[in-house]
Design brief:
With about 525 residues, the chain is an alpha/beta fold. The chain has one domain: TIM Barrel (Alpha-Beta Barrel). Helices cover about 25% and strands about 25% of the residues. The strands form four sheets. Strands 1, 4, 16, 17, 18, 19, 20 and 21 form an eight-stranded antiparallel sheet that branches. The chain has an eight-stranded parallel barrel with strand order 5-6-7-8-9-10-11-12. A three-stranded antiparallel sheet has the order 13-14-15, with no helix packed on it. The chain is globular, with a radius of gyration of 23 Å.
């Protein structure tokens, strides 16, 4: 039996606690109220309520991302590529859009609680042994901006098709059946050893012989190039060793393959990961900080096929790990959405870790054309209780993903979440066909373990159930509700001290949970 509570206007901007479910004379087990009140916007700076809880990953059958209070955390966010160094395919079009504090404000307003922030090895180490502290300063500023809006950051060592210097030179005529390749992003030119192989691509960019030779030399650590990246990771980890809103480090985006695809994606990749993790932990120790989560990916073929062999268990003894595949099911990959999630879950079980989808997305000419797919993906993400990051926030008209060859013309539209018409680069805000699903009601932190999660971004419905048998950190519940559903009814079982705050027009629910609990919206 549900008991309706009428909420009146508040006179302050502080949290307004409704009556507890256990405070009623009839000892009702459920409370029904409304998400919204007429309180003023509650958007105090982070300093007013303490630093963000630092995160870690647990290992084993109940693997999850958790905060220091023990609450399970779902990192739902978006990729931000605006600090990456990309090849400029068109002289008239910059490959990135400037990054500002407003970007983080807008990301948080959509309800995201995290960003995957792309950083480039070519900028971090522009010459052998160098370390560009000015670039690190730009990364620091971005991380601070994120913290101002309670956003966690995953620092992603990004690359596509190995690096920036694999482009086909102007004037080179590619053989029949091949096309000129862009340079891309990732490794600096000095670490790109191609043996003079052709840069022309017979299809996908990764199949250009120059790209494959460059990767083979990376896996073999020719001239110490892999060691340079390992050392760079140690330096970067030291610089962010104490940073609480850095959720962790994504070791290498979509690692490529050289001349031995099987070994490159398993033993070679695992060996690199082991070295990089050791350097990161040493850097964190040297920086007087704590161990952040390490996010590790399968090789690039996973994005194309939905599943590939991965490094075997034992590539590291570290347990603070998360598997971070790019589940492009029914998007870049032809496998089904259920199949993509099943493949990710299988690897996670084998390694005793949880999953975070580092990239996912759909880019039809008109977003409404992918409405069904994005809703099905979101439902699968909720059912699995995984986080993830949409690709991507703002993709410039000069990005090599948009200009398909050196000196070429851009596509008519850059299909990032904020879409740009090209070449004039006029931006349109996120289309409701995508934004309504991405900005759906979602738990951000849940004491104990989430046992059921469903959310509907069109109708504003949420079902969240969980267990917290130990009672640890029981008051760490945090649930985001977008402003368009602020008047929806909330019903709870096993949740006390339910309060709500206003956050950039949206609503955030807080509460204390019992051993078993449930929250429903709508």
């Amino acid at each position: 039996m549900f008991r309706a509570l009428t909420v009146v206007a508040a006179l302050s901007a502080t949290l307004l606690p409704p009556p507890s479910a256990h405070a009623a004379p009839d000892a009702a087990t459920h409370v029904a109220t409304h998400v919204a009140t007429h309180v003023a916007t509650h958007a105090a700076p982070r300093a007013a309520h303490g630093p963000m809880p630092r995160l870690h990953a647990t290992h084993g059958k109940k693997a999850a991302i958790r905060d220091q209070r023990g609450a399970q955390v779902l990192l739902r966010g978006v990729n931000v590529n605006q600090l990456g160094e990309y090849f400029q395919a068109s002289p008239a079009l910059p490959p990135t859009v400037p990054l500002t504090k407003d970007d983080f404000h807008d990301i948080a307003t959509l309800g995201f609680n995290s960003v995957r922030l792309i950083v480039s090895w070519s900028r971090l180490e522009p010459t052998p042994g160098a370390y560009d502290t000015a670039y690190v300063g730009a990364i620091r500023q971005a991380v601070r901006w994120a913290a101002a809006y309670d956003l966690y950051v995953v620092l992603d060592m990004h690359q596509d098709a190995y690096g920036i210097a694999v482009d086909t030179p102007r004037g080179v005529t590619c053989p029949e059946g091949t096309t000129p390749n862009n340079g891309w992003d990732g490794a600096p030119g000095w670490a790109t050893i191609t043996d003079g192989a052709s840069t022309c691509r017979p299809g996908e960019r990764e199949l250009a012989p120059a790209v494959m030779h460059a990767w083979q030399h990376f896996w073999e650590d020719t001239a110490g190039i892999q060691t340079h990246l390992v050392d760079t990771w140690g330096r970067l980890a030291r610089d962010f060793a104490k940073t609480r809103n850095v959720a962790g480090f994504d070791l290498l985006n979509e690692p490529g393959f050289g001349l031995d695809v099987a070994a490159n994606g398993t033993t070679d990749l695992g060996a690199f990961y082991g070295r990089a993790i050791a350097a990161i932990r040493a850097g964190e120790t040297a920086g007087g900080g704590f161990h952040h989560i390490v996010f590790w990916e399968p090789n690039v073929l996973w994005s194309a096929f939905g599943s590939t062999p991965v490094p075997a268990r034992g590539f590291t003894k570290d347990k603070n790990l998360v598997f971070a595949p790019h589940i492009y099911a029914e998007s870049l990959s032809s496998n089904s959405i259920p199949g993509g999630f099943d493949s990710a879950a299988k690897v996670a079980r084998q390694h005793g870790v949880t999953v975070w989808g580092g990239e996912w997305g759909f880019w039809p000419e008109h977003p409404v054309e992918a409405s069904r797919e994005i809703r099905r993906y979101a439902a699968a993400e909720d059912a699995a209780r995984y986080g993830g990051a949409w690709w991507d926030w703002k993709q410039a008209c000069g990005d090599p993903h948009v200009v398909d060859r050196p000196g070429g013309q851009p596509s008519a539209v850059s299909g990032s979440l904020n879409r740009f018409t090209c070449p004039d680069q006029v931006m349109s805000p996120p289309d409701p066909a995508f934004a309504d699903v991405l900005s759906r009601p979602v738990p951000r932190a849940v004491p104990g373990t989430i046992t059921r999660l469903t959310s509907d971004g069109r109708k504003g419905r949420l079902v969240l159930a969980g267990r917290n048998p130990g009672g640890a950190g029981r008051c760490g519940l945090e649930v985001f509700v977008p402003k368009r559903f602020a008047q929806k009814q909330v019903r709870v079982t096993g949740i006390d001290n339910l309060t709500r705050s206003r956050e950039r027009g949206n609503v955030v629910l807080h509460g204390c949970v019992a051993d078993e609990f449930e929250l429903r919206i709508g």
